[in-house]
Amino acid sequence: MDLDLVDALEERQRQLGYRSGRSLLTWGIARLVLWKGDPDITAITYTDLATFGEEIHRWCAMPEARTIRAAHVHRNRRDSDPATLTAEFEKACLSRLHGLHVLLFNTGQVKEPPFHGLKTCELWREELTSPGTPPAIAAPVNRWLSGRLQTTDRAESVRNCRDAFRYFLRWLAQEVPDLTSLAELTRAHFEGFLTHQHERINPRNGRPLSARTRYTYISPLLQFFRETSQWGWTDVPARPLLGRSDLPKLPSRLPRFIPRDQLDRLMQAVGDLEDPTREQRCCSYGGAVPAAAKSPACPSTASMPIPTAIPGYGSRSARPTPNA
């Protein structure tokens, strides 16, 4: 196998926007080469890609495929439905095969265009809601998301909102299949969704959803229903059904206060460094360099007092009063 050609193809794939270019490339090429029995990468044709895709479909439809996939997943997912595991595996394989098709089409090796068109980062704009969503539900969501796309909002922010709505609408379709309009929503529906978020287990790690993940799902919904009710839209609830108190509390991280004894040892170690600028750096942190190690570069550092607590990082008493 020509490894130089593999490197060149990887570079081209990254230019096309694939972040994990190497893994996508080696997955497809290695399996096609083994399947064909021919190490010549330049001999891969459209027929090979299409036939290999059919083989993936055929294998995933076999009954034993479910047993094999269940035995080759992380232990946290072994209790999942085998049919779901097989469907996810088939989708992942075909996505990687499609990526190889896009690459070979762009390099000119394959003349036929990819099965579903070129993968670009803008395709999500064409389907802001999932296909099959009732029109009365999809209309206000599409209108709101489209409006945000046409304003100053970043596309990535709108895409995150779109993903949050897709998740919420899928949940509605499963739990409230008779719902035909967002105007029919009640507070009880949102309480059920919030409970679902709190109890849901992440299939990747077997743990509950983090507060940050739940926040990203709920925050766009809160903004949507608050704004649309204020604007008087008739196809949404007349009043907001979510409030700020429904958002998960995000953990706040503050710098740790350094006790005096630890700060003394730190300053002693800094004084032993053979660096003429160490005193200036110590001054900026409020520390004092031992007099024996002090240099003329910072004549006042030896006499600088070490505060009991750095303002804003420990004791309230260390903060200056308004009359100070």
TrEMBL record:
- Keywords of the record: DNA-binding
- Write out the coiled-coil annotation as residue ranges: none
User: Start and end of every Core-binding (CB) domain?
Assistant: 135-229
Tell me the segments the record calls region Disordered. 295-324
The source's superkingdom equals Bacteria
**Xref: PROSITE patterns:** CB
Among InterPro entries, the record links this protein to:
CB (IPR044068), DNA_brk_join_enz (IPR011010), Integrase_recombinase_N (IPR010998)
GO terms for MF:
DNA binding
Identify this protein by name: Core-binding (CB) domain-containing protein
**Lineage from the top down?**
Bacteria, Bacillati, Actinomycetota, Actinomycetes, Kitasatosporales
